[in-house]
Amino acid sequence: MIVTIDGPAGAGKSSAARALAQRLGFAFLDTGAMYRAVTLAALRGSCDRADQTALAQLMAGLRLDMPPGKVVLNGEDVTGLIRTPEITAASGAIASSPVVRQQLVAWQRQIAAGGDFVCEGRDQGTIVFPDALCKFFLFADPTERARRRHRELSARGDTISFDEVLKAQDERDARDAARDIAPMIPAHDAIRFDTTSCTLEQVVERMEQEVRTRIAARHPLPPAPPPDKPPANALTWMETSWFRLWHETCYVAYFATMTLGFSLRIQGQHNMPKHGPALLIANHQSFLDPILCGLAARRPMVYLARKTLFKNRYAAAIIRSLNAVPIDQEGVGKEGIRTILDQLKLGKAVVVYPEGERTPHGKMQALKPGIHLLIKRAQAPIVPVGIAGAFDAMPRWAWLPTPAPLFWPAAKGTLSISLGQPLEARLYAEMPRERALQELFEKINAEQQRAEQLRRR
């Protein structure tokens, strides 16, 4: 059974296709990656991309495998190598080649034959699988698409301006729509979906509903995987009306206390996903950090806390009421990872401090390797968070915080927090661990610097 998702770059089709395949229990086929792999092979072999005879010889000696989440070219994993701007710029000639396209279309049909696949590309519903039972065509405002693509490239460390991304995108759109062979156009029976103002969760939910409704009578799909049974902790409590009332009451009380008592300043709240799973990664300065993250997120959060904090039954009752989940150790060890994944599967927002402990000197420490393992397994947007002033207000050796009242002269205990733009977990999951840790460190540190600037205004 085949589901096709076509559309231009930046419309969100790759992320949506992966998520939809996971929900349906289908395999995922990234056909764009196949064209990129051929482009890489052509560049390495100094092959004239306009010479169809040379390309035919190249394809004859090519071995391309598509195991889950990877692209293997002649036995080499090139998953990360095919996502550079150079490959993007050179792939147009490859995609327009009759020889290459004929061979890749045959391979795509061979891969998907007899299986259940979500196939993503530009001509899946029109050329490759014209008889697919369900077809989607995703599109979005060109500026928004370029913004998404620029954010993705920046997260990988590529230095390219937004204007360059927009120009390249416009040129590629025009080329893809005008080419004689397999132009990028919606299939006549495709469902068109504007993703400009939609979250990934909204896009996938709508597509899943359409797929299951359309083909349930003819070919029943495997049932959606049941959510893991919620542990007997704050998760069940979070779903009740009483909790929502309690959360709003605590929010107002804490917000008033932090604003009046510590001159709290917040920026970037619009970057926090309003619904669905989200993973906040923040620097860890003091015991005030969970409160600050909860106020900035403006939605119920799940926190990890050492079991030792639950020894006092009165303190435990308060901590549990604020969604704290007890674990043996603080940070992102194996137990913490399992617990976090449980919460994300249930659509919760979780805050994590990847340094593993509160800073002893006010500066960020190196991130623990466990955060990379967590990101590899998490299917949730990552929100980098920077906290400033919490160490001055309440360092790890202090029993009580030092206030900085709102209407008094500026004091070192003034608190601020900054939320950055959400990051795609997939981008960092594909990176080598050390590079991913360094880039995540830089993202958090950049938000901390923004929070520090906000604090000193």
What does it look like?
By secondary structure, this protein is of the alpha/beta class. Helices cover 46% and strands 13% of the residues. It contains 18 helices and 15 strands. The strands form 4 sheets. It has a 5-stranded parallel sheet with strand order 2-6-1-7-8. A 5-stranded mixed sheet has the order 9-15-14-10-13, sandwiched between helices. Strand 3 and strand 4 (72-73) form a beta hairpin. The protein is elongated, with a radius of gyration of 25 Å. Residues 227-237 have low confidence and may be disordered.
Q: Share of helix among residues?
A: 40-55%
Q: Count of DSSP helices?
A: 18
Strand line-up in the sheet with most strands: 2-6-1-7-8
Largest sheet: 5 strands, parallel
What class would the helix/strand composition place it in?
Answer: alpha/beta
**What distance separates the N and C termini?**
58 Å
* Structural domain tally: 2
Uncertain segments = 227-237
Shape: elongated
Q: Return the CATH class of the largest domain.
A: Alpha Beta
> What portion of the residues fall into strands of 2 or more residues?
5-15%
CATH architecture of the largest domain: 3-Layer(aba) Sandwich
Name given to the CATH homologous superfamily of the largest domain: Glycerol-3-phosphate (1)-acyltransferase
Question: Measured on Cα atoms, how large is the radius of gyration?
Answer: 25 Å
The name of the CATH topology of the largest domain is Glycerol-3-phosphate (1)-acyltransferase
Mean pLDDT: 83
User: How many beta-strand elements?
Assistant: 15
